[in-house]
Every structure is written in C-alpha cells, then in structure tokens.
Specification:
Layout (H helix, E strand, L loop, with lengths): L2 E5 L1 H10 L6 H10 L4 E5 L9 H10 L4 E5 L3 H10 L3 E4 L19 H13 L3 E6 L3 H9 L4 E5 L1 H4 L4 H20 L3 E5 L7 H5 L4 E6 L1 H10 L1 H15 L1
Parallel strand pairs: 1-2, 1-8, 2-3, 3-4, 4-5, 5-6, 6-7, 7-8
Helix pairs in contact: 10-11
Length: about 240
C-alpha cells in the first residue's frame, strides 16, 4: 500500500500571515494522523517563511507517526536536523525568491559535498532522501552518495498543459521509477499532486510514499482537514 505523508507547511503559512499563533501546527498534524496519514512532512526553509525552528521540535516530540524534514543542505539546517533527529530527511534545492520548490536537487553536480552531508545524517540514524528530477543521472548519483531514498519531482507531470504531455511526463516518471528500483533505493514522489492526478502516480510499480501538501490544505478550506486527508487516502487506496 502506498503511504501518504501530509505536508503541513501551508498551515504555517496561514499562521505566519498574521503571526497570531494560530492555526496551531501540532493540532493540524494530529488531525492528519487521526485521519490516517502515515507521516508529517515540513520544510524548514532558510528564510523561515512558514515553518519555524520551534515547530519542528514540537512536532518531533508530540506526533505519533514520523517526521519527514525537508531541508536544504545548508550547515545551519544540518545542525538542527542532527539535534532534532527526525525519522527522515529529504534534501531539496532552495531559492529564496521561489514560491515553492521549482526543481530537483542537482545531486550529480554536487556529489562530493552531498556525500558528506548524507554520511553525517545517516551516522545519526536518520534516513535520507534526495528530491530529484526524473533523470537517470540524478537517481544513480543519489545512490552513489549514499541516499536511502529518492523522491521524484512530479511537478512537471502535474503541470502538464495537455493530455499528450501528461502521458509523456508520466512515462518519464515510470522510467525513472524503474531506475530507482534497479539501483536499490526506496521510491517516493511528490510536488503538485492533487485529487485528480494522484491516481496514475500511485500505480507506478514500486511506489512507496507520496508527500502531498498544498492540494490537501486547499481542500480542507471546504471540507475540513480531517475529511481532506481521508479523501486523499481513499484516492490512493483505490488506485493501489
């Protein structure tokens, strides 16, 4: 069964808009878990635009499933991760001007540095994933630097302008997934997935986990967070 990690960054985005102290991030995480989420994902960005340092410590201490920390391979964030000890870390590229993560990490082009980062995290008992584009070179490099998992960037597929492009980009994801499995890394995926396009990604052989945030939080505006998570889980389970 494909697992669901719910990214709750945008609960924090709403809180930070007024800095009123609510909505409470831990409360949101616990609602997601009660609805059946397999884990909670947050991105501690260098600019702290939504998730704050205190949030990750509060979540790690109090959630019942697992914490997946998305982060840039920046020294100050690495130090937090090593102190926090989340179950999973997903290394992502990060630009301060972007609205959301725009592409995959260039593992192949930064292999020496990333190898050292992965080694530090893994020596602390943290499972490490690389958020990469669906490219063979990036997947193979992820394996070579010691990553346990790859998370395929599904944004190009999710934003396909036509049905033909969608099928083409889905095919690219499937080929990348096969390469990941061949190289012995755990296969995850995320970015831009919603209630309409998630089914095809669930059906990719070997898929382990999907990390989905914005579409669930947006749906929660109309049906509540508990229902929004349950609806996504139902979509995943029916397709799996």
């Amino acid at each position: 069964m494909v697992k669901l990690g719910v990214n709750i960054d945008h609960i924090a985005t709403l809180r930070q808009a007024r800095k009123e102290g609510f909505p409470n991030l831990l409360e949101a995480a616990l609602v997601c878990e009660k609805a059946g989420a397999d884990g909670i994902t947050v991105h501690l960005r260098e600019d702290r635009r939504h998730i704050q340092d205190a949030d990750v410590y509060d979540l790690k201490k109090n959630i019942n499933t697992k914490l997946n920390l998305e982060m840039a391979a920046a020294e100050d964030i690495i130090k937090i991760a090593l102190e926090l000890m989340p179950h999973d870390v997903c290394l992502v590229p990060e630009k301060r001007s972007e609205l959301t993560t725009e592409g995959g990490l260039d593992v192949a082009g930064n292999a020496d540095y990333l190898r050292s980062v992965v080694a530090r995290l893994k020596s602390a008992g943290i499972r490490v994933s690389m958020f990469v584009n669906a490219e063979e070179s990036q997947i193979v490099s992820s394996k070579k630097v010691g990553a346990d998992c790859v998370e395929l960037h599904t944004g190009i597929y999710a934003n396909s302008p036509t049905k033909e492009e969608c099928e083409k980009n889905l095919g690219t994801l499937k080929k990348a997934a096969a390469i990941a499995l061949k190289n012995g890394v755990i296969l995850n995926a995320g970015h831009g997935l919603n209630y309409d396009n998630v089914t095809s990604v669930v059906k990719i052989p070997g898929m382990n986990e999907l990390n989905i945030g914005f579409s669930i939080i947006a749906r929660a505006v109309f049906v509540g967070l508990d229902n929004a998570v349950r609806e996504m889980i139902e979509k995943i389970n029916k397709a799996g």
